[in-house]
Amino acid sequence: MAAATAATAATGTGTATHRLLRPANNSTPLKAPTFFHLSSSKKRSFSISCTTLSAPPAAPSVATQDRVFNFAAGPATLPESVILKAQADLFNYQGCGMSVMEMSHRGKEFDFIIKKAESDLRALLSIPSDYAVVFLQGGATTQFAALPLNLCSPEDSADYVVTGSWSDKAFKEAQKYCKAKTIWSGKPEKYTKIPAFDALEQNPDARYLHICGNETIHGVEFKDYPTPLNKDSILVADMSSHFCSKPVDVSKFGVIYAGAQKNVGPSGVTILIVRKDLMGNAQPITPVMLDFKTQAEAASLYNTPPCFALYICGLVFEDLLQQGGLVEVEKKNAKKAGILYDAIDGSDGFYVCPVEKSVRSLMNVPFTLQRSDLEKKFIEEAALEKMVQLKGHRSVGGVRASIYNAMPLAGVEKLVAFMKDFQARHP
């Protein structure tokens, strides 16, 4: 029975072999292992011969027709070239005999992966040497608590500019660990604008001034950044949804943090860029995993990091550099957003974007239809045309198109063509 089972596996006629060697969609087979043929005699002796199944073809160089245009806010679309590269390396990374998902985070292979990822990110953002780059877990939301714990005592004050749901959540979390104060809120105007910086009533004793650079839900983006009034204070920014979408002068900030799942990778990685002199003064109650100094001194390896997600981030950083860096990436993003906003503004009110034009996001484009009863139909019909995840956030409704770095121009052009056709069919 054992011999028959082994022979069946080697010839590929058994259903178990199909499950082993093929992904669920029966696409390109995975690299096959070696099986052994066992033969027996009456004397119970065995002879062993090896049969190695043929290796699979190289990963395809173009995407399959089954791919959709994914307008999700996060986890979001990734560059096709990155996905195909990861697919090619999935079973046996660079000939090391194992997947990145299996290798030790302290081995030489992963040491190269994480160091190259940091080096490429530093090159992309021109990060000064007096800033630490740390790859963390827990999402940007965990940093809402880590910031006051690392930068303040319980009696210190911190200023928050609340331009949307995420900066509001950051403020509410910070109140638990310091004397956080909202110095401006866009809530009365439904988060559709950003204040004039000279109108901000800052606390001269605030340890830091916190902003959310781009509000994913409401589509409001800072085009420039305020300066803290207190000369000893610092600017802190949650850049999750526009991180690496354009150049930024890191030296203007004390801390930048971002979840990777919008522009630079899958969910599971949070990137922290912190000026080194700001580390080492965490409150005594700070959990060790939230201590900036502990994480930086351990080079992001205090505990097991999200290895595979970090590997994907590294591939994305490499891809962005190959595109010419963030100056070129911003040009592409501005072109995509311009096409979409022009279609909205040129629809004679059929589509409406509520955000003030001067602060409209290049990443997240929210809009409503003049007839709200048509919004569900719009989203459903778009999905039939392979444009998915266009439903607005549950807290605001409407439609939202997230057009991050990896969204190709063709995806935006197809959406705009659909919008015009939908309008023509619903006069």
From TrEMBL:
A GO cellular-component term linked to this record: chloroplast stroma
Domain Aminotransferase class V: 68-415
Pathway(s) of this molecule: Amino-acid biosynthesis; L-serine biosynthesis; L-serine from 3-phospho-D-glycerate: step 2/3
GO molecular function: O-phospho-L-serine:2-oxoglutarate aminotransferase activity; pyridoxal phosphate binding
Record's keyword terms, sorted: Amino-acid biosynthesis, Aminotransferase, Pyridoxal phosphate, Serine biosynthesis, Transferase
Pfam families the UniProt entry points to: Aminotran_5 (PF00266)
Matches recorded under PROSITE patterns: AA_TRANSFER_CLASS_5 (PS00595)
Family the UniProt entry places it in: Belongs to the class-V pyridoxal-phosphate-dependent aminotransferase family. SerC subfamily.
Protein name, per record: Phosphoserine aminotransferase
